[in-house]
Design a protein that fits this description.
Largest sheet: 2 strands, parallel
Distance between the termini: 15 Å
Radius of gyration: 11 Å
Number of helices: 3
Helix content: 40-55%
Order of helices and strands: EHEHH
Shape: flat
């Protein structure tokens, strides 16, 4: 997130507190299909990728 990259994480304790789905990254439930779908959505949508990356970077810069 601090590197300005869009991130994908699983919905487990600790990760879901850092990643806000569709705001600072994508959360998946951990199965292969949901991970594949999330990766493909970022590959195919540059605007979404940039939006998530920018929000994630801003979030970690201000994280307390």
């Amino acid at each position: 997130m601090a590197s300005g990259c869009a991130v994908i994480g699983t919905e487990v304790s600790g990760i879901r507190e850092l990643i806000r789905h569709d705001k600072t990254g994508l959360l998946v439930n951990g199965d292969v299909k949901s991970l594949r779908d999330a990766i493909n959505s970022l590959i195919s949508n540059e605007k979404k990728r940039k939006y998530l990356a920018d929000n994630a970077c801003e979030y970690v810069r201000n994280y307390h």
